[in-house]
Amino acid sequence: MSEREDRGRYPDPARACAGARLHIVTGKGGTGKTTVAAALARALAADGGRVLLVEVEGRQGIASLFGIPPLPYEEREIEAVPGGGRVFALAADAESALMEYLELFYGMRRAGQALTRLGAVDFATTIAPGLRDVLLTGKATEAVRRREGGRRRAEGPFHYDAVVMDAPPTGRIGRFLNVNSEVAGLARMGPIRNHADKVMEVIRSGRTRVHFVSLLEEMPAQETRDGIAEVAALGLDVGMVVVNMVRPPLLPQDLLAAAAAGEVDPEELAAGLKAAGLDDPGELAESLAGEVGAHARRVLLEQRVRGELADAGAPLLELPLLEGGADRAALDGLARRMAGQGVRR
User: Fold this and answer.
1) Where is the ArsA/GET3 Anion-transporting ATPase-like domain (predicted)?
2) What is the pLDDT of residue 8?
């Protein structure tokens, strides 16, 4: 197996994250992708790190999660992490990225503003979605390359220790990341193509990982397996699969098969309920027997799905279901869970 073919095959989450500077987080809608990206940024900022969390879908999911006002197109600190770490956030959008690009490289900010007023940017990115993706990924990869002292510095420490991108869902992740191919028909040479080449240089480097968020359900798991295959076929490094919203089993393993098959004795349950002080527990025992069977079948399904995800070749990292919803305290708990499973810079 060549070094290129072997790259991205890591035995555990620690190896999947160690040394990476750009972490791209994707997953099917509803899997908690933004929450996982935020927890990952917090975990990477531990022990004094500076981490930038970037969202590119215009949903203001980061602001909602952290309970702060909507984020502008501006990098700003949103969290101080114990140990001296700091998390910054940016809500990237194609129009602002284009105006920044024109200003930085051509001194044409007013031209960009005029294009926006005329609707030219929306028109261009609608008929050529590859351009939008180049602008959005370009903002994150520029932050990865940036050194202390200015954007054009070629040496010295990096401004950020890591960048975490809350990326589009798995159904669009291959096209979103393969910006060179998407731009090929739009610009075979010139500044846009050069910009795309710089973006792909970072995305294809050994310092970038694409992480997938899944649930222990068949549809998200299938999309995850398909996404892993697609990203690997593009020659990009697959990092880890974050299995999110995991619920603990309530039955020991040796009882699951029998319970799933309906072999739960309602009379035995009724006796236990009566011993607990409940009067006339017969009806409740019948209902409880059905619930026990449904729980057992769900747990067995989850075990099968977990095995299928493991067979995809990426290490699994598991996070629990947040019963009270996601907030800063919950993110802290998820970040500590990640650290406990080896996630670090």
Assistant:
1) 23-201
2) 43
